[in-house]
Design brief:
By secondary structure, the protein is mostly helical. It has one domain. The protein is 95% helix and 0% strand. Helix 1 crosses helix 2. The radius of gyration is 17 Å and the shape is elongated. Keywords: Membrane, Transmembrane, Transmembrane helix.
């Protein structure tokens, strides 16, 4: 791959990773508050939430390309 394709892939991956990481963080924090109450969920729920968000953000940054190809393949199979 050339340099432009590499920069393009990683630039899109950065945005997708940030969005999915933020969604994972907010969803996980919401779950902690709902499960453990205000004191423990709101006060300490951000600790596991930030770990989950980092993992999801990193994985989606790296794997957004294969995920898009997989979805496109499933759509093509369902239409044929």
């Amino acid at each position: 791959m050339d340099d432009f394709a590499d920069r393009w892939y990683w630039a899109i991956g950065d945005w997708i990773g940030a969005v999915f990481g933020l969604i994972a963080f907010l969803g996980s924090w919401w779950y902690c508050v709902a499960t453990y109450g205000y004191l423990f969920g709101f006060g300490l729920g951000w600790l596991p939430s930030i770990i989950l968000a980092a993992i999801v953000g990193f994985a989606s940054k790296l794997l957004w390309g294969p995920a898009v190809l997989s979805v496109a393949g499933l759509i093509a199979l369902s239409l044929s």
